[in-house]
Amino acid sequence: MSRLMLVCAAVVGLATALPAAAQFQKPEDAVKYRKASFQVMATHFGRIGAMANGRVPFNGPAAAANADVVAFVANLPFAGFVDGTSGTDKGEPKANVWSERAKFDAAAKKMQEEVAKLATAAKANNLDQLKAAFGAAAGTCKACHDDFRVQ
Ligand code: ASC
Predict the structure, then answer these.
(1) Residue 91 region, left (φ>0) first, then alpha (ψ -120 to 50), else beta?
(2) Whole-model pTM?
């Protein structure tokens, strides 16, 4: 394991060991953090989507690098869903994130599993495999948005 990977693993270990609220000074900081990490995920996932959908030429190593970023960053945003940060504006988390927490956590885990599979699939340097894994991962994004995000 590279030094960077060890540092990253330690950061995630620390992040997941503490209660979510204890990791942020203020609820607004948690909101900013989760939005920022979703933004990074969306950027790199979108680059893979552009290849999967034929908008840019397929580049296997680039897809693999982007998928590794997505798989890593997918561990981060959920610590930012601290109590009292639901909303009613478009894009905000609905109150059922907290009232149906087990279902929300399961949806998050499913997404993390599918983006991990995407990272593995992307290393095969094969567009059809990339498309299949991208579609499965995108489905987990959409499922959670449909259930838990204000439309
Ligand atoms: C993306 C992105 C999402 C998902 C979702 C899939 O590229 O930013 O949130 O895919 O649109 O339905």
Answers:
(1) left
(2) 0.89
pLDDT tens-digit readout, 113-148: 999 999 999 999 999 999 999 999 999 999 999 999
- For the domain made up of 25-148, give the CATH fold: Four Helix Bundle (Hemerythrin (Met), subunit A) (1.20.120)
20 — pLDDT class (breaks 50, 70, 90): low
User: Is residue 46 lining ligand 1, measured as CB closer than 6 Å?
Assistant: yes
The one-letter code for the residue type at 39 is Q
Ligand 1 centroid–CA 46 distance in Å is 7
Is the Cβ atom of 77 under 6 angstroms away from ligand 1?
A: no
Q: Is the CB of 138 under 6 A from ligand 1?
A: yes
**How do the domains of the chain map onto residue ranges?**
25-148
Specify whether the CB–CB gap between 18 and 78 falls below 8 A. no
